[in-house]
Every structure is written in C-alpha cells, then in structure tokens.
Amino acid sequence: MREVIGFDDFELIDATDGERLERWKDIILIRPDPQVMWHAKRTDPRWKTAHARYHRSQNGGGHWETLKQMPKQWNVDYKDLTFHLKPMDFKHTGLFPEQAVNWDLMREAILKANRPVKVLNLFAYTGGATVACLKAGASVTHVDASKGMILWAKENAALSSVSDRPVRWLQDDCLKFISREIRRGNKYDGIVMDPPSYGRGPNGEVWKIEQQLDELLTLTSEILSDDPVFFLLNSYSGGISPSIVNYMVQKTIIKGLGEVTTDEIGLKITARDFVLPCGCTTKWTI
Q1: Model pTM?
Q2: What residue spans of 187-279 are helical by DSSP H?
Q3: Alpha carbon of residue 103 to chain centroid
C-alpha cells in the first residue's frame, strides 16, 4: 500500500465504529467511512470537541451537524499546492488527501520526461491532479460533468498560482469528449481518470462503471500518444476486482509498453498505527 507522507495540513487522527476523526489544518471533522468496521475506544479528546459531524441518512445522503463555530470554507496546503475546502453534501470536503501519492507520481513522471507533456484529466472533480500536473510544467485538459466542480478547480489553480499555465476547462461527458478527440486526432502523453461508481453527465447521461469501464478504456487507448509518460486509473468501486482492472488496462491501454501495477492507496491513522485503505490505483509510468 502506498501511504501519504508529508501532508502536514491533513491528519487522520483516529477511526472506529464506522467513523473517521480528521484534522484539516485547524478544523476537526467526524465523517462516516464504511471501511472502518472495527470497534476501539475513543481515547482522543477531539472526538468530543470536533467542529462538525456528518450524519448519514438511512434513506441515502445525510447532513452536517455543526458542533462549534467554524468557517464555511478554508484552505489547506500540500507541499507547494493549495486547495480550497468546504463541507459538502454526501460528506465530502472537496479533496481526497490520499490522492497526494498520485499527484507526486505524476509530477515526477512529467519532470522525468524532460519535454512538453500534454495531460488529460477525466472525471477531474476539483482539480487536484490538474493543479499538480500544471505545477510540474505540463499542459492540461480538465474534463468534468459538473460546472460547480470546474469553478472550484479554477479556484484551486489560482490558489496554487498556476492559472496562467496552459489549461483547458471543459464541462462535458467524458465518453462523448473522448469520442470527439478521436475524430479530431488529438493525443495525450499522460492520462489520469477518477471515474465514480455511478454518476450523471451534464445532459443527464448515466454512468455505471461496471457497465462502461471497458468502453472507456477502449476509447481512451486511441488518444494516448505514441510516446506516453503515464496512465492512472483510480477506483473506489468494491464491485470490481483490482486484478480485473489491472488486466483491462494492460490489454487496452498499455499493450506491451511495460508493467501495469495496481495497489491500494491509504492514510495513516495516527491513533491506531494502521493505514486505512482509500481505494486503488492502476498505473503505468515511464
């Protein structure tokens, strides 16, 4: 498992009984996590002094309970990157800190290439990977179905002082965008994608990863350049085996260019001397 190291503004303090106790700079949050299936004593006093707690509804979704005064939004830093945070519906804050290991991986690959690198970020959310790749000197095409997430990603780019770098911000359905890029003959040296298990495009297009991952990878293989730098596919779906995803990437994307590896990424739990798995990444780099 690859563990995030050096993210000083984030800490997974403790985890027990389906909940995580987290520090985001100076803000303490309690959020549910289905991976936390064990019971342990809550000895850290911050369980009782957190700023907010997310309560999941039995009917889906949920709500934040504010426990003490806190800002509606704030910023956190990871190395030379800065991100804007705020509590969102469905328990999110706008950033997945475990992805820091992949930001570092992509930045290293871009710098190692020592040439202009074009990156495509699909299902790009609030732009963690976009900002990281821009910081390393790549040009980036950022594609997401949500206008709000694209605006948020632009804020993150501004906070990290990369707004002036070559970047395209596109609200689009990822499959439709790739199909158009194939027709236009556009190619990318690095591709990163973070597809949800389920989602909708800007015009109501339905996305189900179990049904459409093979199509996504097959189309993506046609826009990867002949001299690629990296390919990364993040997966949070428990319904697909990491070994199957690895095989699919090997046969459709890389096709003999080298070894494809799949590993868990995770966050160290300070109180437990344990790393919490936070999904898998299937990857290939130069």
Answers
A1: 0.95
A2: 209-220, 242-249
A3: 9
The CA distance from 217 to 120, in Å, is: 13
Which parts of 98-213 are beta strand (E)? 118-122, 139-144, 167-171, 190-193, 198-200, 206-208
pLDDT in tens, 125-168: 999 999 999 999 999 999 999 999 999 999 999 999 999 999 99
Strand partners, 82: 77
118 token code pair = 């074009």
Of 146, 147, 133, 17, nearest in space to 81 by CA: 133
Digit-coded pLDDT (tens) for 64-107: 999 999 999 999 999 999 999 999 988 999 999 999 999 999 99
Q: Return the SS3 of 251.
A: helix
Of the candidates 205, 175, 181, 211, the one whose C-alpha atom is nearest the C-alpha of residue 193 is 175
Q: Which amino acid is at 73?
A: Q
269 forms beta bridges with 12, 274
Residue 230 contacts residue 106 (beta carbons within 8 Å): yes
CA distances in angstroms from 51 to 26, 29, 110, 157, 194, listed in the order given? 10, 6, 39, 27, 29
Do residues 281 and 232 touch, judged by C-beta distance below 8 A? yes
Taking Cα atoms as reference points, which of 140, 148, 200, 139 lies closest to residue 175?
200
